[in-house]
Design goal:
Elements (H helix, E strand, L loop, with lengths): L1 H23 L18 E12 L2 E13 L6 E10 L5 E13 L2 E14 L9 E14 L2 E3 L2 E11 L7 E12 L1
Antiparallel strand pairs: 1-2, 1-9, 2-3, 3-4, 4-5, 5-6, 6-8, 7-8, 8-9
């Protein structure tokens, strides 16, 4: 199941983001480029949300992150994230990671972290049974629209845990960020 979701992640990423990234920069030069019109900011606070496929069901999720660029013109950032996925295996993930921008507006982040699973085993525990697992979260975002320091665009997130039995999820949604 993890390989099937990962293949779906790659297919969706290529199908959605490659045409957007190539088309958006045709004829774009220097400060005329919309993605370059707002000055150089080093900090980003972003939110990604959308339907998430986990454990053979679609559930809601939200992912919040903070990234800081290594320098004013760097295409690399370091940051931290928190993610919550509702559903059968309600869970919360915290992690730290790196983001790279191979093309202006297109970013790929990889954030290893720890996931806390909340299980209700129907024996009166009221959901207080928790498991922990190492998880890697991969997110691909394209900043399609720019409103000053606000960016909006599609996002695809894939998370997997080699230590948690059959745990992975795939989110296809929207990303909103403010840069400062």
């Amino acid at each position: 199941m993890i390989m099937k979701q990962f293949k779906l992640f790659l297919a969706a990423a290529l199908g959605i983001f490659a045409p957007l990234a190539l088309h958006a920069h045709e004829g774009c030069q220097g400060s005329q480029c919309p993605a370059h019109a707002h000055g150089h900011t080093r900090n980003e606070i972003g939110v990604s949300t959308g339907p998430t496929y986990a454990h053979e069901e679609w559930v809601p999720s939200i992912h919040v992150h903070y990234f800081r660029k290594l320098s004013d013109h760097s295409r690399m950032s370091l940051g931290a994230m928190v993610e919550h996925v509702w559903g059968h295996d309600n869970h919360l993930t915290v992690g730290i990671g790196i983001k790279v921008e191979p093309l202006r507006g297109l970013s790929l982040s990889v954030m290893p972290g720890v996931t806390l699973f909340d299980h209700d085993d129907n024996n009166g525990s009221n959901g207080n049974e928790h498991d922990r697992a190492f998880t890697t979260h991969v997110e691909l975002v394209y900043d399609l629209l720019h409103f000053g320091n606000f960016h909006l665009g599609p996002a695809i997130c894939y998370a997997f845990s080699p230590t948690a039995n059959k745990h992975s999820h795939l989110m296809v949604g929207v990303h909103l960020a403010v840069c400062f």
